[in-house]
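Subject: Protein record for review, amino acid sequence with backbone structure tokens
Concerning: The relation between a protein's sequence and the shape of its backbone.
How to read it: Take the token row as a discrete description of the fold.
Enclosed: The protein record, placed directly beneath this head.
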Amino acid sequence: MMLFGTSQGLCYLEPDNLLYKIYNLTDIVNAKIANESINAFAESTDKTWWLGTWTRRLIHYDPSNGAYQTFQLPPDYSTNHKYIHAICDTKKTVYIATYTGIFLLNKQTSRLSELVVPDKINFDSVYIVSILLDNNTLWVRTNVAMVFAYHIPSRKWEEFFLPSYLPSNFYTTRMFLGLDNHGIVWANLYPKGLAKFSKREKRFIQQKTPVNEEFEKWMFQFSADSTNSFWYPTMGYGLIKYDTEKGTIQNWRESDGLVFDHCMAACPDKFGNIWVGSYHKFSIFNPSKNYFQNFRVPYNEESTSYRNYMFPLRNQHILAIQKNILIEFIPENISNNASNKNTLLIGSIQLADTTFLVSSQLKNIHLGVDGNNFSINYAVFSPTQEQYRYYYQLEGFDDKWIDAGSKTVANYTKIPGGNYTFRVKAIVGNKEIVSHDFPIHVATHFYKTLWFLGIILLIIATIVYLVYRYRVKQSNEVHRLQAQTSRLEKDKTEIQYQNLINHLNPHFLFNSLTSLNSLILTEPKQASRFLQKLSLIYRYILQNKEKESVTLEHEINFVKNYIALQQSRFEEGLSISIDIPKEYMSSGIVPVTLQNLFENAIKHNTIEDEKPLVISVYIEDEYLIVENNIQRKAYVETSNKQGLESLKKLYYYLTSEPFQIIETHQLFKVKVPLL
């Protein structure tokens, strides 16, 4: 035992009761390969280790004496992912997996050779993503919906399909095989849960598991505990437990005490604890107590350049891999009750040129007027280095607790003179440790600065007010000009449309008078009725020319007189049908809209008994539709192409729905929005 003193008292260290043992690749092998990342591991029956690196190097290492031997796989230029990602060890042979092939190392001859795999594995864009040794069978998984089984004694292959599996991008989706405590092979089926292999039925069977869970895409290799439950580390979703008997899942996150939501390795120990690795941070989880102990190791701090791996050793220890560092954890040296001894201490108060150590004799501290910038150091004294989340508050200055995360220092600057009380608490999981209150007095300056702050605030408020007033004035002016422009545009459109109404097509009037003259000579009674309808037309125009809109019913009654006059002129050459449901008769429409559209159709198309002009009026999608077939005249004498445009502009000011003109080779359609 080693004893050492601190400002808070006497502390001790037991070297024989260490939590872990470090194997640094720099110390194991020569410097040329010391910085290579280790990505794969297997332990032989003689307790020697096989390590696979990023550069396709295989290292055989004996931890008992430090002896090692290296083997180099042939280069692979077909993919960027060329490293060794899995190793399986048998009595005579070591199987080494890369994404594009499997190599064999003969232990007796130390010769490397490549395993002949089925053509379906050699197929372009098919990669080996996982291998697993089950007695005399080597299971091989690819990134497509296929798993292969290689029977080592017979050297024969079998292939099996994964049910409900959607082939995924192996760069972004985790795919793996796993072995439970009963010797059954399992495979994940993202996003369809899990499947296990039935030895009796010779196929993979999808299991009752929650599917389409977001964390499925980010799960790493599972480990089975003594109850045959699976423990999955996930990238961003914490620790997942899958109960193989009930088919249910549980999830633990940082908020539950887990060291970090981005965890990449999990491994049960012989005591029932689950060890979880996240870069250089680790959690030891006791499922029976639902309790986490967290700690860090001072090697390879958090970096995306590597990921964690964990493997159970034959001595019932756990081996964790961090890039080029091997950590052998010793579970029997951890006590689940050690956390009860943890104490939260305030260690020191630091000023620019002075440090005050906080001891049991120092009950409070008085700082001068220049001591209003200071830092307070605190920490939990923990045998397991659990990763606590700290909250602190300087009562009298802080309105609420400050979340410091894992930081163990509180920085304060420009603290006004007065009396304050500092307190801090540490939380991990559902456990909270609170320090004792520590009073702090800061002397007050002889001058006050509130007046300066008041002047600054007044100047800022004045500037903001003046800018606001200027912007409001400018905005009002812009709105005024826009409104004036809009009003002028509307007045112009109304004048144009009124002009169109007031000067109802002279050809119509001329043709009507010509027809009337003929009827007077031949059919006086018909001429009288003709004259009545003509007078009704002009009376309607005079009565409604000042109105913005009339009901559709009034407009249709008016246009019926117009239709009668035109049909007396064109007879069988003109066919007009109106089919308007009764519920639309109260809808609004601009006066003389239908007459203008009929007149436009008659003006621009030929009308013959053999080829009549057919005009249809109906409702479609809350629009009034006026549609006619196209029999275009070669030349239209009185067309100035302004009638429809004026009508369109007027509707623009009356409704937000568009006035639409649609023309095809066979039809001319106008969609009039109802008001």
Notes: The longest strand covers residues 418-428.
